[in-house]
From TrEMBL:
It comes from Oxalobacter formigenes OXCC13. This is Methylenetetrahydrofolate reductase. GO terms for biological process: methionine biosynthetic process; tetrahydrofolate interconversion. Pathway: Amino-acid biosynthesis; L-methionine biosynthesis via de novo pathway; One-carbon metabolism; tetrahydrofolate interconversion. Its cofactor is FAD.
Length: 294
């Protein structure tokens, strides 16, 4: 396990020119935190591959490491090969490899069934060019047959050549530690970075959580519900809860935190500062990645 902890941030590619401009401002605010890298989602919410790629290139130009997400469901080997070549040609060396989800109406699954097949393909095609991160689900992926089955499937991704993982968000620190025990028992020791979802909007969070299988513990749900439309109280409570969660995770040995920024800077910045991540050299980012020479 690495001694230096990793702190990073996820953004998504906006669909409009105004959104792209707003994300530039957000990134400028987040850049002050010196995150280890920015990851950029693909497909979620209908974003295009080009959108993901363009944001990744902007991030590189700003002097940061960019890790675009690459999904495989509904794709062919050839289209993934093109995507990998495009990344290589632009000096991108870090990707997040995922299966992704298709709308239920979509009939064609493509040439990959699961993310482990994608990881295997990327390694076979590109050797060690990429650092490959994969997804992990401490509270179980909603389509998994059982927790153990999900752990076994995670192990397959690590064995296929993943370097690290980022978790789905969760609010029970114990679920993360239990998951880590299970994967370590299975002989997997890649770093599993905890995915952190700041709390700012209860309705949106409840919807997301129902879809992705992340539990909002009853005590948190009740408190958030009790605030109704009082956004300031939701935010204040959310900051306390998430900061404490991060503290528990770091104290318990989590190798890093990956913040789901939802393209907003304020909450991630506040949590980052409360945790003093910027001052804790042993766990802060060691560098702004050198601007990639193409
Ligand atoms: P897999 O690891 O393939 O797992 C999918 C399901 O299949 C699980 O239930 C697993 O247990 C099961 N499974 C896996 N392998 C096998 C096997 N060999 N046999 C039987 N069952 C198996 N979605 C997007 O569309 N775009 C994004 O940018 C994006 N970014 C994400 C980032 C992170 C950090 C996370 C945690 C999720 C992200 N997602 C994204 C959501 C993700 O695509 C969905 O959760 C998707 O349903 C599963 O993707 P996966 O890579 O985990 O799939």
């Amino acid at each position: 396990m690495p001694t230096q902890k990793s702190f990073s941030i996820e953004v998504f590619p906006p669909k409009t020119p105004e959104g792209i401009e707003a994300l530039r401002k957000t990134r400028a605010e987040l850049a002050e935190l010196s995150p280890k890298y920015f990851s950029i989602t693909y497909g979620a919410g209908g974003s295009t591959q080009q959108g993901t790629h363009n944001i990744a290139l902007e991030i590189q130009k700003e002097g940061f490491e960019a890790a675009p997400h690459v999904t495989c469901i509904g794709t062919t080997r050839e289209s993934v090969r093109e995507r990998l070549n495009e990344c290589r040609a632009n000096g991108i060396r870090h990707i997040v490899a995922l299966r992704g989800d298709l709308p239920s109406s979509y009939g064609v699954l493509g040439e990959f069934r699961y993310a482990n097949e994608l990881v295997e393909f990327i390694r076979a095609e590109t050797g060690d060019w990429f650092r490959i991160d994969v997804a992990a689900y401490p509270e179980m992926h909603p389509q998994a047959k059982s927790l153990q089955d999900d752990v076994d499937n995670f192990v397959r991704k690590a064995q296929a050549g993943a370097d690290a993982a980022i978790t789905q968000y969760f609010y029970n620190a114990s679920s993360y530690f239990r998951f880590m025990e299970n994967v370590q028992k299975a002989g997997v020791d890649i770093p599993v970075i905890a995915g952190i979802m700041p709390i700012t909007n209860f309705k949106q969070l409840a919807q997301f959580s129902d879809m992705c299988g992340a539990e909002i513990p009853r005590w948190i749900r009740l408190r958030l519900e009790s605030y109704g439309d009082d956004l300031a109280s939701i935010r204040a409570f959310g900051l306390d809860v998430v900061t404490e969660l991060c503290e528990q995770l770091l104290a318990g040995g989590a190798p890093g935190l990956h913040f789901y920024s939802l393209n907003k800077a304020a909450t991630t910045r506040e949590i980052w500062h409360r945790l003093k991540l910027d001052e804790r050299k042993e766990i802060g980012s060691d560098k702004k990645a050198e601007a990639v020479q193409v």
